[in-house]
Amino acid sequence: MSPRQDFRFTTAGEKRAFTRTLFDRIAPRYELLNVIMSMGRVGAWRRAAAAAAQAPPGGQVLDVATGTGGLAAALARRWPAARVVGVDFSPQMLRTGRARFARASMRWVGGDALRLPFPAGAFDAVVNGFMLRNVVDVEAALAEQARVVRPGGHVVCLEMTWPRHPLFRPLFRLYFYGLTPWLGGLLTGYGEAYRYLPHSVEAFCSPEELAATMERVGLHDVRYRRMMMGTVTLHVGERPG
User: Fold this and answer.
1) DSSP line for 194-230
2) CATH number where 60 lies
3) Distance CA 132, CA 158 (A)
4) CB neighbours (10 Å) of residue 52?
5) Alpha helices per DSSP H over 10-126
6) What is the C-alpha separation between 212 and 152, in angstroms, rounded?
7) Residue 26 and residue 22: Cα distance in Å, rounded?
8) Angle ∠(31,34,35) on CA atoms, nearest 5
9) How far is CA 2 from the centre of its chain?
10) Any idea what DSSP says for residue 115?
11) pLDDT (0 to 100) of residue 4
12) Domain count along the chain
């Protein structure tokens, strides 16, 4: 069975190629699906992540795996005196984002989350939204984010998580494995991307495990909070001074 059927990857390169193709193909409808599948809540989650960045006036904020720029735009609105940079490895996502926010002052950069093209301590805050499930090495990705944030700056992670409530879990499974792939395929013509989505969420580490990973890469004062009945979690850590 190929990784496009069971989403098991034999090499890191195989997963990287799969996810890059996936995001290139869904870029034109990516934001629409985010709004629909989150029941309109994705904007509130992004605002919460942006607020947690605590960007100083004149500071620089990096959005890793910026996609079509939804979280970067939330950062720009929350911290208008800061300079926002979005980095992504999907050329089509970046093209769509640039067109979507053509009048915004955000900077768009092509780059890999495991090898960020920035010097150490270049940013006052680093955020990522719904990207860690898709990288081949979560700890390495977080280590890069910890590297490029300045001492005292925050690393903010917004990620989907599998709910724990025993009554809600089966309903969420039905929605995520049943309705989501059908709807994603209908609106994008690429249902495989939305068959991959629930698998990636269920296989991802727990909020406690992610917090521990953030601490292992050198971030301090790591805390998190669950939202939307435990299906989304916001983590915040600080690089020590």
Assistant:
1) HHHHHHHHHHSPPHHHHHHHHHHTT-EEEEEEEETTT
2) 3.40.50.150
3) 9
4) 20
5) 12-26, 30-37, 42-53, 70-78, 91-100
6) 19
7) 6
8) 90
9) 25
10) B
11) 47
12) 1
Among the residues of 70-162, which ranges form H helices? Answer: 70-78, 91-100, 138-148
CA 214 centroid distance within chain: 15
Show the domain range for 36.
3-238
Structure tokens at 98: 């640039």
Angstrom distances, CA of residue 63 to CA of 68, 106, 129, 175: 11, 10, 8, 29
Task: Tell me how far apart the alpha carbons of residues 131 and 224 are, in angstroms, rounded to a whole number.
Answer: 17
pTM of the model: 0.94
Strand pairing partners for 107? Answer: 85
Report the residue count for the chain: 241
Edge-to-edge order in the sheet of strand 83-88: 107-110, 83-88, 60-64, 123-129, 149-160, 232-238, 220-227
For residue 63, which of 1, 116, 135, 138 has the smallest C-alpha distance?
A: 116
Q: In this predicted structure, what is the pLDDT of residue 238?
A: 98
Largest CA distance in the chain: 52
* pLDDT string in tens for the chain (241-residue length): 344 456 878 898 999 999 999 999 999 999 999 999 999 999 999 999 999 999 999 999 999 999 999 999 999 999 999 999 999 999 999 999 999 999 888 999 999 999 999 999 999 999 999 999 999 999 999 999 999 999 999 999 999 999 999 889 999 999 999 999 999 999 898 889 999 999 999 999 999 999 999 999 999 999 999 999 999 999 999 999 8
